[in-house]
């Protein structure tokens, strides 16, 4: 019985502390061994215990494999939030001077300055693309026609 509980705790720990399947695999193995010992200890026979343990191990291994695959896939996705996620977004200039101004972007008003790629002056209403983020100041350039499609 103790192996079942410890195995379940270790398997659940995998969800909170990703160990790339190591803790999940150990948890599944402990649950399978615990099930074999519990069933055979109840007098049901070793064959039924092994069958149940093997079934639990297969189902648990499948669940751990699936969760590890999903976790790895999530790590390889493009960042969509934070400073890295705002690069490439299109905003609209609200007001502008030679040194910079403010840009409305994704429902927020940001301080902005021209990117090193920006050659001509920007004006209110121009659509701009975020090149990078420096602190809380956007570096922007005028959006090209293909970017607005």
What tags apply to this protein structure?
OB fold (Dihydrolipoamide Acetyltransferase, E2P); single chain; 5-stranded mixed barrel; 47% helix; alpha+beta; 149 residues
The sequence of SSEs as H and E is HHHHEEEEE
Structural class: alpha+beta
Major sheet attributes: 5 strands, mixed, barrel
Summed up, the domain count is 2
The pLDDT mean sits at: 86
Which strand order does the major sheet show?
1-2-3-5-4
Strand count: 5
Radius of gyration: 28 Å
Shape, principal axes of CA atoms? rod-shaped
Low-confidence stretches: none
* Beta strand %: 15-25%
Helix amount, in percent?
40-55%
Number of helices: 4
Q: What order do the helices and strands come in, and which of them pair?
A:
Elements lengths: L1 H15 L5 H20 L4 H30 L6 H5 L3 E7 L4 E5 L2 E7 L12 E8 L2 E6 L7
Parallel strand pairs: 3-5
Antiparallel strand pairs: 1-2, 1-4, 2-3, 4-5
Helix pairs in contact: 1-2, 2-3
Task: Give a short summary of the structure.
By secondary structure, the chain is of the alpha+beta class. Helices cover 47% and strands 22% of the residues.
